Prior knowledge:
Helix content: 25-40%
Strand content: 25-35%
Largest sheet: 6 strands, mixed
Number of domains: 1
Order of helices and strands: HEEHHEHEEEHEHE
Strand order of the largest sheet: 5-4-3-6-7-8
CATH topology: Rossmann fold
Radius of gyration: 16 Å
Amino acid sequence: MINPTGSTAADRNRLIEIVKARSFQSGVNITLASGKPSTYYFNMKPTMLDPEGSYLIASLMLDLVSEDKATLIGGLEMGAVPVATSIATVSHIQKRSISAFFIRKQAKEHGTQALIEGLPKGEEITGNRVVVVEDVTTTGASALKAVEAVKEAGGEVVCVVTIVDRLDGAGEAFSEAGVPFKALLTLEDFK
Length: 191
């Protein structure tokens, strides 16, 4: 495995620094996608699209899900796309290939009208061990939509993994749904 510092703890700490600098705001009044108000906000796109941030997220997440023996990783557009893509790329470099896909919020009205994108022609989710990935998790509702889409397509969801868990009910929601949940970071890392 290629590791920029040789230490998962050091990589995790460096990722926290990058998220604080690029993606985290406190003392704001904002309404989250869940509809809940918050004084903390994570816009993970600047970190996910940063070369170092992207690499660290992918490398650390690969370590986090290594025992799940996943063959596919993906989730809902937009948040899952850069994460899944980075993980797929780093997995190839590290000789642990996991292919990426994403789930549209609604099926295209033209072309193949696909809901799930990124799989090669003739391949399906059916029979694959799938990790559902998300950038920020609050209640878990978005990731659970992805879980349902994967299950409906015949995939086996082995876990949901997020970059940041806001500690606002997602863990409980995934537990109730019978889906293991893993977080790289939590809101506590930023207080």
